[in-house]
Structure formats: C-alpha cells, structure tokens
Amino acid sequence: MDYYESHEVWEELWSDYYLKDKKFIQGLIQLSVSFVHLGNGNMIGANNLLKKSKEKFIQFSGIHRGIDISILLNEIENVELEYKKLKNPNNFQWDLVPKLE
Q1: What is the spatial distance between Cα 32 and Cα 45, in angstroms, rounded to a whole number?
Q2: Among the four residues 8, 66, 84, 98, which has the most C-beta atoms within 10 Å?
Q3: For every one of its 101 residues, what pLDDT tens digit does the chain have, with 9 covering 90 and above?
Q4: Cβ 60 vs Cβ 24: under 8 Å
Q5: What domains lie within the chain, and their CATH numbers?
Q6: What is the C-alpha to C-alpha distance for residues 86 and 8, in angstroms, rounded to an integer?
Q7: 75 neighbors 98 (Cβ within 8 angstroms)
Q8: What pLDDT shows up at residue 8?
C-alpha cells in the first residue's frame, strides 16, 4: 500500500470539506503518515503520529465509515507495542499495519 498516497487523498477530503467527523479523517491521515515516517526511518515521527491518530479514533465507537473502531484501536495498540521494541525500522512487521478495507 502507498501510505503517502493514502495521506494525500484523505488530506484533500479533510481540507476541502466541512465534515462532522473531521477528526476521524485527520486520524486516518496521521495513521498513514506514521507509516510514511516509519518507512523513512523516522521512528520518533512514526510513534508521535501513531499516538495522535489513536487519540482521534478514541473519540468514535462502533462502525464508523465502514471501519470497526474497536478492531482498529486494537491493531494500533499492536503497532504501538511493536514500535516500542523496534530497534531498527527495517525490521518492522508490516503485516501489523491495520487493514482499512
């Protein structure tokens, strides 16, 4: 998946429209950019944006825009744990990335 392209699409949606769930879209942007930072070896940026995205998603519940929030938050927590023990960003287990399908 191209996380940067995801970020671009969601950012356009976020900035061009007034949405009641603007924070949710912002969380998607932050989540995708977290993985862009990770791919660039920027663990501090990756971790910071992952935490910020989680703060946004906590404000929602149930199924939102087709995404099960409890599953998403659980997957983000798994990524957080992986980030904490990760010494080298190249060793990240990319299968931990939440699937937003």
Answers
A1: 12
A2: 98
A3: 555 566 566 666 656 667 788 889 889 989 999 999 999 999 999 999 999 999 999 999 999 999 999 999 999 999 999 999 999 999 999 999 998 87
A4: yes
A5: 3-96 (1.10.3450.10)
A6: 27
A7: yes
A8: 66
pLDDT in the model for residue 93: 94
CA pair distance 1, 48, nearest whole angstrom: 21
Record the tokens describing residue 90, joined without a space. 């190249």
Residue type, 89: P
Q: For residues 19 and 93, what is the distance between their CA atoms, to the nearest angstrom? A: 34
DSSP-derived secondary structure letter, 62 = S
**If residue 64 lies in a helix (H) or strand (E), which one and from where to where?**
strand 63-64
pLDDT value of residue 10: 62
First-residue to last-residue Cα distance in the chain? 12
